[in-house]
């Protein structure tokens, strides 16, 4: 229907039906927003949430229909598409705008998909998943036009029963479901090609945030990535259970996973690592004699500040308990007073003996199991402590950090447990 020079059925009052319809939507939303959901019945809240999902799908369908015909907006601004106008007037990032325009173009090719979105049968996210799957089928030389139509019908049907993520998984195998004989081999070849591309995309970036943290991000092939996830979760989950049993509020899952990753790194066996720079994979820590002796001091992780990082002496002492480090102790003029020894940490047989003697974390009142604990020197190596069983005690990561924290003192009680006390 054209909206140019629209006249109502009385033939008297010209008006814009698009503006009128939008005004009706805005007024209705304004009425709802003026209400307080806290006073709504549970059935009303559920009904509102369900109908809003339906309305969001219809809103997305309308937006995509408009974008699919927005070439005149681009012509008016002299751009190749409407993304420049969306960036300038709507403050939508160009990447997001172009993704929407691309989706609108894809939706215009798939009538059933577009109609289902307009009817509110599937969501915007599911529509995006299906178009991506259909684009892959369209590019598949083995698939026919009939396969494409059947895949669209099946995926729209699946969308009524699956989440967007579940639908994405089904979309990758939809051709095999249509015709296993033709597409199983093709799927295997596609997976091999995908895995090869994944190897080329593998990357890891590490940087110093200069705030006491190091940032990193990366991309791994899915098989290795899932192994990595499983290893980290193995360290995170036991802590989660312990906290639940104690009734302590859980930290955010991301923090639990981050702490678990640090534990994973701390438990790597240095002897199993490749040689680095001609030596066994070890960490060098440079610290002055004065800083070594006092509670508050600094050390350099590495050989110098340019190629290393500054850490607290407390952290250096903690690392010495269970990491293969070589401490370089310097005098006032920078001369090397002691090059230390790299095997300050407890050996596997000693850890097994400690587990037999100590059934859990030895901090007073803590029951963290021994497999999640560190072996700690009661007499610090900085004070001449030796790595032997009578000087060793199992502490969970939390209490191990307290044992090295300047703000706490600790003592061994007659029953062998360790009591921590905050300094006054």
TrEMBL record:
CDD domains: HNHc (cd00085). Residues 349-401 form the HNH nuclease domain. This is Uncharacterized protein DUF222. It comes from Nocardioides albertanoniae. The lineage of its organism: Bacteria, Bacillati, Actinomycetota, Actinomycetes, Propionibacteriales.
């Amino acid at each position: 229907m054209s909206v140019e020079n629209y006249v109502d059925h009385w033939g008297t009052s010209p008006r814009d039906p698009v503006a009128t319809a939008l005004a009706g939507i805005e007024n209705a939303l304004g009425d709802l927003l003026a209400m307080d959901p806290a006073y709504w019945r549970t059935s009303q809240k559920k009904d509102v949430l369900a109908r809003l999902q339906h309305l969001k799908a219809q809103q997305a369908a309308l937006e995509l229909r408009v974008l699919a015909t927005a070439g005149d907006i681009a012509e008016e601004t002299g751009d190749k598409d409407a993304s420049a106008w969306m960036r300038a007037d709507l403050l939508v990032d160009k990447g997001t705008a172009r993704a929407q325009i691309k989706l609108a173009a894809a939706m215009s090719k798939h009538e059933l998909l577009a109609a289902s979105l307009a009817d509110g049968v599937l969501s915007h996210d599911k529509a995006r998943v299906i178009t991506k799957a259909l684009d892959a089928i369209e590019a598949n030389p083995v698939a026919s036009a009939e396969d494409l139509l059947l895949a669209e019908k099946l995926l729209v049907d699946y969308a009524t029963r699956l989440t967007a993520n579940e639908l994405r998984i089904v979309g990758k195998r939809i051709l095999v479901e249509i015709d296993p004989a033709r597409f199983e081999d093709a799927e295997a070849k596609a997976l091999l090609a995908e895995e090869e591309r994944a190897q080329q995309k593998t990357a890891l970036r590490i940087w110093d945030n200069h705030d006491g943290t190091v940032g990193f991000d990366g991309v791994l092939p899915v098989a290795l990535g899932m192994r990595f996830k499983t290893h980290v979760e193995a360290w995170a989950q036991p802590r989660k259970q312990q906290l639940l049993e104690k009734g302590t509020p859980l930290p955010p899952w991301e923090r639990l996973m981050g702490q678990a990753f640090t534990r994973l790194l701390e438990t790597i066996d240095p002897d199993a690592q490749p040689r680095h720079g001609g030596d066994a994979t070890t960490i060098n820590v440079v610290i002055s004699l004065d800083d070594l002796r006092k509670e508050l001091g600094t050390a350099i992780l590495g050989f110098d500040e340019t190629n290393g990082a500054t850490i607290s002496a407390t952290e250096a002492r903690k690392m010495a308990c269970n990491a293969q480090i070589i401490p370089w102790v310097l005098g006032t003029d920078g001369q090397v007073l002691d090059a230390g020894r790299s095997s300050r940490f407890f050996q596997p047989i000693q850890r097994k003996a400690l587990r037999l003697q100590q059934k859990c974390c030895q901090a007073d009142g803590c029951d963290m199991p021994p497999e999640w604990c560190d072996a700690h020197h009661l007499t610090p190596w900085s004070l001449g402590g030796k790595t032997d069983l009578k000087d060793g005690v199992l502490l969970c990561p939390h209490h191990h950090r307290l044992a090295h924290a300047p703000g706490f003192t600790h003592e061994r009680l007659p029953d062998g447990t360790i009591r921590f006390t905050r300094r006054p």
